[in-house]
């Protein structure tokens, strides 16, 4: 949701709030917890330019690639949300609003979208219904191996096409003419309008795609843009510069002329140094760097991302973690409070007992008030009992070495070392840490090359099903290949029912099965505390959709 509810707070009041940080902000509310004191315009003069309306920012990771039909990570989605646009988009108030479609009608078995005639690609040609047909067919085509193909399964024949049982041309989407798109639905979908705002539903123009000869989305010149910005420079591993798209239909709304992602780093110390030196307008903070920000009396903001992190376990038969008793043993020795508050020690993080984060809404209020939530229990003796049962069932005297796949970020490194230690000291397990750069971690997880992988999931759309179907047997983001027929049936109920109460009951059953089978081990819900240049206004932080969103941002004052 948008940045809002700003307030002035003393440093002492902020420190109290850090101690109870888990209580606040789960609806995506952003707090401004400090106020500008001792920070002058000249301090950060290079990070923003009010006359040129340009801003320099840090991005946590470089996007692996920007083919919207194949992208799976938050860095890619953030960039795509600035350079591409679907039928609908998320507005500054957090709700859906018209994008390429100026109006639409959605029923139980079909949907129709009427496209605006002034929507243009960055080469000036119109965006047409045919571009959506081609883009959606690419996503669902099994030859392309899209991990998000499942998100199109609401469309007629999509699943059968993705399973290779029908030709891609039978997908239930048709361009009636250049500006009318008709969609036949496989089933009633209570949230189809939310789906079409997701990047897998973005348009791709067929002639341009063909011209890239298999490199679509790999570089700045192998993308065609229909969003507010276009990529003017992409130096891999170093820099990504976005400039205002002069052909964007709503260009009058866009005030920034350029967004320069001049640095790729997750490290809070590096980010804060860039901020302090005037080279970046925003910096994420951790416990150590927030102390520096407090001493400088810089404005500090807080945001709950809406994501949930967890340990994904490999359920393939050849892996030790396919054994239920071993999974239970692992789960029972993890103290989530200790992990979050003593190890990670990042303001804004809270322990997670469930795959469903706390901000999700059910039928009559928060979903977690309406479904049973497993206790975050630590029981080392019981864990050791399950470990002995696991050894017996696996026919081994000792559990073979377990490989834990992680990203090379500072937070994940702390988490991995903590987990490695407790698995060794409390269970006597040999766990090796396989640390990879972000792109390689994604690839190894998708290939199933792990026993345990530190994973996270952010919402794709504003509905509990965006988490609830993650461990369905057919979901290609289910990297551990957990499979449970009963869970699949409850997922199907949540997909097809239009009754809020029935859907909440289904989510409760999904939660029960995930906990009983230890399909995953939830660990924490992340948040962030950050500093932002006081002249940079209008940045939207949200749980669902591109985050952060600079499409409504602007720079005030004189640079």
Description:
The protein is of the alpha+beta class and 559 residues long. Among the domains are: 74-217, Alpha-Beta Complex (Dipeptide-binding Protein, domain 1), CATH 3.90.76.10; 308-525, Roll (Dipeptide-binding Protein, domain 3), CATH 3.10.105. The chain contains 16 helices and 23 strands. It has helices at residues 11-19, 74-83, 129-140, 158-162, 192-195, 206-211, 268-276, 287-296, 324-332, 336-344, 380-394, 410-427, 438-446, 465-468, 485-496, 500-516, and strands spanning 31-32, 48-49, 54-59, 88-90, 96-98, 101-106, 110-115, 173-177, 180-184, 229-235, 239-244, 258-264, 282-285, 300-304, 308-313, 350-351, 402-407, 431-436, 452-457, 520-525, 527-532, 536-537, 554-555. A 6-stranded mixed sheet has the order 16-20-15-19-17-18. It has a 5-stranded mixed sheet with strand order 2-3-12-11-10, with helices on one face. The protein is globular and about 65 Å long. Mean pLDDT is 89; it is low at 1-44.
CATH architectural type of the domain at 308-525: Roll
List the strand order in the largest sheet: 16-20-15-19-17-18
Question: What's the name of the CATH homologous superfamily of the domain at 308-525?
Answer: Dipeptide-binding Protein, Domain 3
Q: What summary fits the major beta sheet?
A: 6 strands, mixed
CATH topology of the domain at 308-525: Dipeptide-binding Protein, domain 3
User: Could you estimate the helical fraction of the residues in percent?
Assistant: 25-40%
Q: How many β strands by DSSP?
A: 23
What is the global morphology? globular
The average pLDDT is 89
